[in-house]
């Protein structure tokens, strides 16, 4: 589960758990104690050289909450690199801004729930061949790689339809 995390990553994770952001506190209240489809989430969980905000091992889901600093170009580049590296471990990634967490708490939780349901379905119905292309239950093409499904999941399509337009204005 830790994918070779170094002691310094564990120390960083412990520090981050002791000093959460307000958005992380809000989100943790709705993720803790298996509240979403019975899935166990960990917060600030060491994984390789990274510490994702939230991680659900059973469905290989990472949830990241981004404050204003993530809008800066250099931070975006670091986030992109991190995301690519996490995907190489067949992890699925959801990203939300802190504003989304504050303003649309229930919608973000529902988006996570729908994603968890989808990931559970995908886990149950994996493609039998390594290079086979499958469709998920939303009709999106998903290609299975040697390491498992490599699929970048941004917020659930229904969430994007409702809220992305308000984010861009």
**Assigned CATH architecture:** 3-Layer(aba) Sandwich
Write down how many β-strands occur, each being a DSSP E stretch of 2 or more residues.
7
Beta-strand proportion: 15-25%
SSE succession: HHEEEHEHHEEEH
Query: Could you name the CATH homologous superfamily?
Result: VSR Endonuclease
Please characterize this protein's 3D structure.
By secondary structure, the chain is α+β, with helices and mostly antiparallel strands. The chain has a single domain, classed as VSR Endonuclease (Endonuclease, Chain A, 3-Layer(aba) Sandwich), CATH 3.40.960. It contains six helices and seven strands; from the N terminus they run ααβββαβααβββα. The termini are far apart. Mean pLDDT is about 75; it is low at about 125-135 and about 145-169.
Task: Annotate the secondary structure layout.
Elements: H1 7-18, H2 22-31, E1 42-43, E2 54-56, E3 61-66, H3 73-87, E4 92-97, H4 98-103, H5 105-124, E5 133-135, E6 141-145, E7 148-149, H6 157-168
Parallel strand pairs: 3-4
Antiparallel strand pairs: 1-2, 2-3, 5-6, 6-7
Question: Brief overview, please?
Answer:
This protein has 169 residues and is of the alpha+beta class. It is built from 6 helices and 7 strands; from the N terminus they run H-H-E-E-E-H-E-H-H-E-E-E-H. The model is unreliable at 127-133 and 144-169 (pLDDT under 50).
């Amino acid at each position: 589960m830790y994918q070779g995390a170094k002691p310094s990553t564990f120390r960083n994770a412990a520090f981050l758990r002791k000093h959460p952001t307000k958005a992380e506190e809000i989100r943790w209240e709705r993720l803790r104690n298996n509240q979403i489809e019975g899935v166990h989430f960990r917060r600030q969980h060491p994984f390789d050289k990274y510490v994702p905000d939230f991680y659900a091992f059973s469905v290989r889901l990472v949830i990241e909450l981004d404050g204003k600093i993530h809008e800066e170009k250099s931070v975006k580049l670091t986030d992109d690199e991190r995301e690519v590296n996490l995907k190489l471990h067949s992890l699925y990634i959801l990203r939300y801004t802190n504003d989304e967490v504050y303003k649309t708490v229930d919608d973000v939780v529902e988006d996570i729930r729908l994603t968890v349901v989808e990931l559970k379905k995908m886990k149950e119905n994996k493609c039998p061949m390594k290079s086979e292309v499958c469709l998920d239950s939303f009709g999106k093409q998903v290609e299975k790689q040697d390491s498992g499904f490599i699929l970048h999941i941004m917020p659930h399509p229904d969430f994007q339809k409702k809220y992305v337009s308000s984010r861009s204005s």
